[in-house]
Amino acid sequence: MKLQSADRPDLTLDQLRSMMTAAGAKRILMKDLAPNDNAKNQPYLSGSLDVTNILPAGDIYVDQTPQGNRIMKAPLPLRWLQPDGSMRPAPHAKLILYPQYPEVRFSGFLRGSQNAPNDILTTRAPGRRLFFGITDDRRIIGWASWGDDTLSANVDALGELEPEGVFRRIPLSGEPKDSYSLLLAELRRIHLLDWIAGKRLSGGVVKPYNASNGIGYTLEAELGISNNGIAGPDFEGWEVKAAQVPSFTSIPNSKKNTLLTPEPDGGEYTQMSLLEFVTKFGYADKNDVEDRLNFGGQFKVGKRHQLTGLTTHLFGFNKVKGEVDDVDGKFVLADDSGLEVASWSFKKLLTHWNKKHAKAVYLPGEIRKAPDTKYRYGSSAYLGEGTDFNMFLSAVAAGRVFFDPGMKVEAAASAAPKPKKRSQFRIVWKDIPSLYHKMTITDVLTA
Question: What is the DSSP string of 68-88?
Fold first, then answer.
């Protein structure tokens, strides 16, 4: 066994788990490092963009290499765990995204960081391992080991571990169980509860909740997921989505599901107030609501929207190859003269897509409003596994994902107009499988 320095003790797996969970980690991922996975060569994290749905990252930005190539980068909120349980920030840690290959590398994780594992991550020694603890508030807690120490021996003793991209999932405690089994056991329990009073979990406290979106909050509360305003609430790495349906036996294939809610970052929209925008590009309410202007409907790539006269375009994406061929690409609404009315850059869309998880469960639910609001959840769980930004853009290019705004201005001509913004990208239920490499429908009662 390698000699451990005084400031890097030979931890056991239980000790690492305890330190990670004390720091807020809700799941732990591990990567076996190849000889080239070091600070000089930048560790390889993925041959696709799927890692952006596994690791939380900051806002995507576009940069240029010394050779003149345009690439994407994303800061990682990484802190290196210390033997005493404290943490030291890695201020320059980032993902480097090469969508045209595609490939993702890990960079800058040692620069400017005190007490980082330099000794381990600057070598080509075989057997090294990298551990990431992921928190609910989108932080990453890092640890590295030599690979011939007690920690790695404990990990090896667990046997086969559940894969998650290039990582393997380390169970937080007890007998190793895959996240799939843990999730299905919880969904089975919730289904058998039958009607559940509307509620949400906030700050560790369960509170009654009966608003229109209560079906999602109630399911999350039952799974111990706190409503803290952070995108992509998850259970053991699974994003959890509840969909209200009239009956478990008749899932409406045309039901819309909201995927992203980013505001445009380009076009006329960014230079105008919502009142000015809807006045110029919107239309009078079609239900004869007096003095109300709308900007809504489904905007699909290649289609001209009848009510607004705007045509939707997707630039920078190769539909045939299914990949980004220009990192400066964008989703655009343009008028007949070619004027860019509103647009979303790939860096903006990818920043929001990063908040989606690589694994998601869609669970149908029913609502009962009298005598009090209650919900119950079906036994058929729709499980999607493996996604990436190119899959999202492929669905956009095919018209399966569409821009579906709900912008309006009430009392538009008055001295006190009431504007409401709602930019959203949506997909109908039957097309959700196109976002995942694998989609299965599982009966939680028999799984």
Answer: S-EEEEEE--EEEE-TTS-EE
